[in-house]
Amino acid sequence: MATGITKKNWKEDTQIITDELFHNGFDYEINYKGKTPSKELTNLEPTQDYNRIFGNNSDNLLFNGDNLDVLKHLIHRTDLKGKIKLVYIDPPYGTNSVFHSRSQKSSYKDDLVGSHFIEYIRRRLILLRELLSEDGSIYVHLDNNMAFEIKVIMDEVFGAKNFKGFISRKKCSNKNYTKNTFGNISDYILFYSKTENYVWNRATISWTEEKMKKEYPCIDEETGRRYKKVPIHAPGIRNGETGKPWRGKMPPEGKHWQYLPSKLDAFDAKGEIYWSSTGNPRRKVFFNKDKGVAVQDIWTDVQDSVNQNIKITGYPTEKNPNLIERIIEASSNENDYVLDCFAGSGTTLDVAKQLNRKWIGVDNSSEAIRHIFKRFFNGLKEMGNFVDKNISKNGVDQMKLFEPKTEYNSDSSKSRDFDFFADSRFEEEAHGIYEEFREE
Fold this sequence. Notes:
The chain is α/β, with parallel strands linked by helices. It has helices at residues 19-24, 38-43, 67-76, 114-131, 147-158, 209-215, 261-269, 321-331, 347-354, 366-378, 424-438, and strands spanning 50-54, 61-65, 84-89, 97-100, 106-110, 132-142, 163-170, 186-193, 204-205, 218-219, 226-230, 233-235, 255-257, 273-275, 281-286, 293-294, 298-299, 311-312, 337-340, 358-363, 381-382.
């Protein structure tokens, strides 16, 4: 793979893009019928087409209703504008379909297509940007149906320079219907920051013995430590010290030393320079298991449906908690706010809580709210339990986030089970769902 070098080394006179234009940015926008001006969106007050379910005695908030209205509420009627550190959303994908839960109950509609879908997502992205802190980030999870159109919209809303990654994820096992095309086993996550200074905790995974031996094939004779050999030069010509000879050798043509000669001398003194039989120097990079393996932008280890033993709520678009954990840990710190306005079964809210983040969830589906209650009151159950009703329930390894404080009595305001509910109507409904799931 070719590595770009500084434009100073271009030998032709023609320069299509001037430095002035480059530093002024390359932001752009697209136009279509029904596109609402950004300022109009951010200035609109909510119309109260939502209910605050959760958040009476808590930093955490749960809303049932139109997320566009809830986002306006958070901007205009709370002090949360500019304080959300991380947004993760898994919105509809523009598939013109409807979805049912594993219990065959209607869960949500994905019936917007074309420009209607684009504008639906764009309006919410504009409000989400208002809520993000200056060092905040947003991840938008989509499939190949509309990911590339929304990439252009996110360039417009957040600025192309704040695009940080296009993550490809293996979402499921291999498909058999490959007669006319390739198996569709991937979806995509668009990662943007609000500014150039954003929270980033480098994501890593643990080394395996096989990968360690492959990546670090050499063994140092003196210490027995494993290492790999890497070049000590880089593309581009330099006129300073890094462009001069070191130990009598010049860097290869068109390149320069990566380090000052004094630094290279220090490496050599510590036994960290490998000299080939022809006198070609390479740096020895020793294996350090504590650093872990840096996560790249292709994720094959966080697919959703693996086997019948994984634990789920049964909601149709439920994502792997390990996927959400990776995102939350990379782009937020403890006590930060994490927002998911397409909350679904509540995976983001659950993982955020377990990682000591504050959370805000929104969903307009009553079935989604039921699954959030199910997850928070009763935890999860194995996928196979949705198929075979005779399988006994195993202990849940996910902690329950809500616990009743007293025996419920709907006639007594003093014996409230769930005093974190903002509305007593939802407290009573939640208790009914709690009892229903306990009896399953």
